Amino acid sequence: MKYKYQLVTLGSNAEAAKEILNLFDERFKELNLPIDAYKCIDRNNFQDEYMGNQPCFVFYFGNIDGNHEDLELTDLLIKDGSMILPIYFNDESFSREIPGILANQNGIQYNEIEREKIVSTALESFGLLRSERKVFISYRRSESTSVAIQLFESLEAHNFDVFLDTHSVPKGAPFQDELWHRMTDCDVIVLLNTPDFSTSYWCKEEFAEAGAKQIGIVQLVWPHHDLKDDSTTHISYPKQLTESDFEDDIYNDKDKSKLKQSVINELIKDVESIRARNLAARQDSLITDFRNIASSLGKTIVVQPERFLTEELPLGKRRIFIPTIGIPQSTSCQTAEIKNEMSSGKVSIRLIYDDLRIREKWIEHLDWLNKNLNIDVKTLKKQEFKSWLQNN
């Protein structure tokens, strides 16, 4: 397979570049994409390997002494319209470490916490990972309100779209419907597993809902809370907390307990790393369900390397089915391969999605778009897979 994605590293700090490329490789594999679908390019193989007509993302690593390298290649990539992420290393040193031609680019400081985000930014640029980074906090108010608010603020500060029941439900909206809707559309759930969490009806419902939707869970298990017999651990990533993980060892006061910053930093890394593999697993589940139904009806559906589905039709026409997690968005059609398919004029596209717990007003809106807009991109909800395939 000829590679489609070009990952370019320029500038200084070969060790940081190596760490980022190794992490990108791990996350790319977790998305179940063929490893030969992307190519690593640097100054040594740029002239032979770089193709201006293929998707490209550039990591430019700054120099702490202000000795900027690869300026000609950087200028070429800017003119080609490539997305370039400047990476600097010291606080408030962007203007020194990054060359002037990248001064208008939004950069990121390299550290252990931000490594996952750096890699996610590249995957998002390629259209392989959605750019919205959605987290849902599940907790029991009578036990962990202060920690829930602390995590809400910390995750938001790291550019996550965070749902917290006390902060995120619009005034006048049906509370429980909005809660399920936002859970359906999230990437990861952060669950505060306090001693009496599982005794709450709504907390148990949230956990059951997460299982039904196959949403990955990062569990923070409170000190002295035994998780050994908890059957939920097989769908989650539990972290056992100790008293020393809390400021002043206060862990059992719903209004005063606070996690130490080091624990929050680890949580942010965990959420970012789990995000890609969880979205891939949910996408695979949707693909399997759709293909199984299609196969039972005698239809041949092929999974393409980029994880969308195709069905060949008479007269050289083709249908594309894009598995979409959460609420379908038009950006699902923005990968290079799909845009090339659409340009042929012989392709129709369906965004397939699981409509369980999505608010009715959204379902009605998507159905209205299908009926009233004369476009080749439409949506298809899971409960209608069989009937639609039978009739089309």
Automatic annotation (TrEMBL):
Keywords: Receptor. The keyword Cytoplasm does not apply. Residues 131-271 form the TIR domain. SUPFAM superfamilies: Toll/Interleukin receptor TIR domain (SSF52200). The keyword DNA-binding does not apply. This is Toll/interleukin-1 receptor domain-containing protein.
